[in-house]
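Annotated sample (chain length 553).
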Amino acid sequence: MVGTVQDITERKRAESQMLVQAAALESAANAIVITDRDGCITWVNPSFTRLTGFSAEEAIGKNPRILKSGQQEPAFYRQMWQTMLAGNVWRGEVINKRKDGTLYYEDMTITPVHDSTGEICHFVAIKQDVTSQKKAEEALRQSEARLRGLFENATLGVYRSTRDGRFLEVNPALVSMLGYNSREELLAISIAEDIYANSADRERALKDSAESFQNVPLQWKRKDGTPVSVLLTGRVVRDAQGAFAYFESFVEDVTERQALEKQFYAAQKFEAIGHLAGGVAHDFNNVLGAILGWAELGLDSVPEDSKVRKNLKVIIEQAQHAAGLTRQLLAFARRQHMEPRVLNLNNSVREVFTLLGSVIGRDIELKTSLAPHLSSVLADPTHLEQVLMNLCVNARDAMPRGGKLIIETRNATVDEDYCRLHPYAQPGQYAQLSVSDTGVGIDAATLDRIFEPFFTTKELGKGTGLGLATVYGIVKQHGGFIHAYSELGQGTTFHLYFPACPEAPLNAKKAEAPALRGGTETILLAEDNEDLAALARAALEGACPSSMARTRM
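Output written by the structure step:
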């Protein structure tokens, strides 16, 4: 028997290795496709079927174009084939279409396979489904776009900042709020030094806040230095390791709101003071009426050379002075008797102007600027004269070393925007009267109180504190409003707005009633104050001895 023995160990090892490789390709999680040089599919693994919906039988012998979605341009595929046919590995992302027509994203690597002669004989494509990843990325992109849109279009100021007070990112609202021209300009400045009115406030705010802070009231300043009141809300953002990353903050500008609240509370306060002052003045008037009346009656019955007569005159003089104060209180409370008529403010200014020379003094220059076609107003000329005199005297006292006093008139339109900033105003057409001086000016704290009764900054005995209160009350009683503006060292301007009214014929005087013969009549007097009733009875009986006066309480 003749036999041959051949060592097939290497062949067996190679066959075993091929079986392992084939099993690995079959069980691979990624889809694998093998094509010939012309792109005809020769083999696919089960993951390919799971990914595309095409079975091996449906795919083998077909071109990979069965997966083409039409989402890529022809140039995309030309570049792919140029790379592969040049013997290079192609890597890229493709949007393909499953058997059921749904689209999916795949990350694909195509490797050329060479035969023993070095020629390309096959291509092996490994495909990884990245659809979920793409959807997550798209959702994240859309979320970031929404957040960016909110950031860019928010009416609140939004920013991120470092612990040492540098802006990392700012939105347009914050740039506008602080009066800067661009984000870059704002990003280049220091928050503590350039934004906070007092840099120490930032340190206190950081010290008081922990991980988050809400509606912290702060005083900031704009680029031009003007103050801005803000409410700051924010939080500390930390990185993956828990270390501080940045502050994320929201800023609300409440400057206008605070100003409106301040004006509203001031209006409420003036209304309350007005009611109180009016009530006190009314009762005080009754007391003064009795004092004056009885003193004047007593004066008539006292001889000229009597010492008592001199005392009575002092009583009358001081009572009349007190009565003047009560009239001013009544003016502030808008309870004065008025005799309104249609008139032109220019005429009132001209009449007062002739009297001002002796009142103001030679070291103050008087000027007027009167609108030629000023709207008429319905007003009491006597009260207007009082308003002008009070304002001019006030201006004189503000210019102890001389200066300029200017009275101006013009037509003014008050719109809704102005009324939103000045809630005491009503929209409409007005005749505006302005009185300006170049005096010492008024600080902000004092300016808030200048119309309060008895408030004065003058020395004791040099002012009652009722001059501007009277102006305020008269203007309000005429249906108008007043606005004061002042700067220290620059002067003060009062703008008075009186509602415009249509032109009307000259105000006709009421016909006087014919004089009645008296001496035999009975007079009925109704008075709820006992002292005034007694005074009136005594006065009537003294004036008409033959008449009989009866009082009813």
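Annotation: The first helix runs from residue 9 to 27.
Annotation: The first strand starts at residue 31 and ends at 36.
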